[in-house]
Amino acid sequence: MKSIFILLIISLFSCNSSQESRISDSNESLNVLKKLILHDSLNQYGAISTELKTYKYFKIQYNNDSVQSAPPDGGYEWKNEEYLIEKIDLKIHFGYSVTKRHEKYQIQASSKHTDNLNLNSFNKDLLGLKHEGKDAFCVLYPPIFNHDSYAAYVQYDHFDNGYEEGNAAIFIKVKGEWIYLKRILGYITVKSKIDLQYDVA
């Protein structure tokens, strides 16, 4: 009985270790972030912040109609595994239970992940430094990978003199290359307090 208990402890420890090793692969994350910048031409609309923004995890709760509650303040950084999957609408890549657990771990540990990512390794053109000092700039979030690390969700916030916009994208790894699969609209907010928010991912 004691030996079975020890094996269970070792198994749980190895699972956590493998999860950490997957999200700590900064090269894959940096590759996805590069693809996002270039695909959406983010470096043409403002400087890219070298510091990534972290996610905030909110507890899964449902109302009487079995509809999940919205994030606490509607902020784009608030995520949980069910809310993320609902907005992505690609259960074939992100909906399996083992991937849900992996997504939850990445959201909760995003501050640890961002500490391992250094965008200073990007060249000046990629970071859009010709726009540095102007009102427009962009902040990226760390990618969230599915359990097998062949699909990635990544989002950003763009700010421009009172105009704010956030969007996301899905990338799929095909033969070693990250390929853009789908854009996910996030939000638009303007300084005049007119909230043009559409579906927040």
TrEMBL record:
Domain of life of the native organism: Bacteria
Protein name: Lipoprotein
Source species taxonomy: Bacteria, Pseudomonadati, Bacteroidota, Cytophagia, Cytophagales
